[in-house]
Design a protein that fits this description.
Strand order of the largest sheet: 3-2-1-4-5-6-10
Mean pLDDT: 95
Structural class: alpha/beta
Shape: globular
Number of strands: 12
Distance between the termini: 26 Å
Radius of gyration: 20 Å
CATH superfamily of one domain: NAD(P)-binding Rossmann-like Domain
CATH topology of one domain: Rossmann fold
Low-confidence stretches: none
Order of helices and strands: EHEEHEHHEHEEHEEHEEHEHHHH
CATH class of one domain: Alpha Beta
Amino acid sequence: MEFKRNILITGGAGFIGSHVVRLFVNKYPEYRIVNLDKLTYAGNLANLKDIENAPNYVFVRADICDFDTVCRIFSEYGIDGVIHLAAESHVDRSIKDPFTFARTNVLGTLSLLQAARNSWNGDWNGKLFYHISTDEVYGALKADGGFFTEETKYDPHSPYSASKASSDHFVRSFHDTYGMPTIVTNCSNNYGPYQFPEKLIPLFINNIRHGKPLPVYGTGENVRDWLYVEDHARAIDLIFHKGKVAETYNIGGFNEWRNIDLIHVIIKTADRLLGNPEGTSEHLIKFVTDRAGHDLRYAIDSRKLKSELGWEPSLQFEEGIEKTIRWYLDNQPWMDNITSGEYEKYYDEMYNNR
């Protein structure tokens, strides 16, 4: 079967990646979507059970740092577009193990860029390398105002954000040096279905379900902007098809929340959906020592994306958080399979027996 385009999506078994893969597979049957994922702890093919047999979908288990394998994928599938989401993304893990973050986020990105450069060999027509990054590269904002824009100076404060900042610079350098068509986007905190339960929202939903403590860094004053993951996937689709080469776009949810206020919303909503009396889980809040280098506030200005491409979030946070909590409570086997570690054993056995 001839496909109109052959798109490589890296990290497609992860949280954001699985939503992007699903959207592209379903919306563009004329495209072949190649999902490259190493299936580290945060990758789970159960996130894509509904499209795994689609005729325009291919899964390849590989490490983006394996340059020879990445080159083979470009050649075998005639890749003409890359949507690069594969990354180590948990700040706490980066503080404990910065080498892994440098390897995957920096050298892995460089591996993909060089493979694309070799494959496309200066024929940039119809090609695009689209790199998804984070607002954390910009550092921290003051509590009382200001927003990150596309012109904000980089000022990363954690090994995670430093590794993403470096990968952003490598992507832009391949455009400036070789002429490769590239786009970079920086997004705010995502939430929604299929998020790995080390992250705040699914962790707290699961802990409320089991009556476990809800650990809150410091006094919970840190502020984050929250973006529903399906809105992010829509933005990626729009930017991939209509964004301007060599541009940066910030993607934000226009939903700033102090962590402690967010936690109260999660508790109130989860208790209601679980049939608990209001306030049942409030006693589970436990304030813990703040994270090292914990940035006070992130907030994204997405006006460029709205004015140039017409994108804006479709969900208000209260609607999105209820939808999210309902999903986790309705899909408890998915959560239990992850927290027990069974999902990793299943895929390791499956691929080791091939």
